[in-house]
Design a protein that fits this description.
By secondary structure, this protein is of the alpha+beta class. The protein is 28% helix and 7% strand.
């Protein structure tokens, strides 16, 4: 640690992370046909090939079907974002 102007400064190591945003939805008429599972499989394969160990996603809290789908595929809640207007 260095001392500068009476304030201690710590050196932080930044680890390189990757982020890919994919907005996906499956039309209700095509639900439960394996499309979403195939998409998750493709994302996980691409991440693995790139050396990425963690796959994260956002899902609306009111979308119970999507939340259940992602839980069935091994995703767990980690963070909750709250808004105020």
């Amino acid at each position: 640690m260095r001392k500068s102007c009476g304030v201690l400064k710590r050196r932080f190591t930044m680890r390189l992370t990757w982020s890919i945003s994919i907005i996906s939805a499956v039309r209700p008429a095509h639900g439960r046909l394996g499309v979403g599972s195939a998409l998750i499989g493709a994302v996980r394969a691409a991440a693995s090939n790139a050396g990425i160990a963690l796959v994260a996603l956002d899902v609306w809290t009111f979308n119970g079907k999507a939340r259940a789908f992602f839980r069935r595929h091994g995703f767990e809640p980690y963070n909750e974002r709250m808004w105020s207007r």
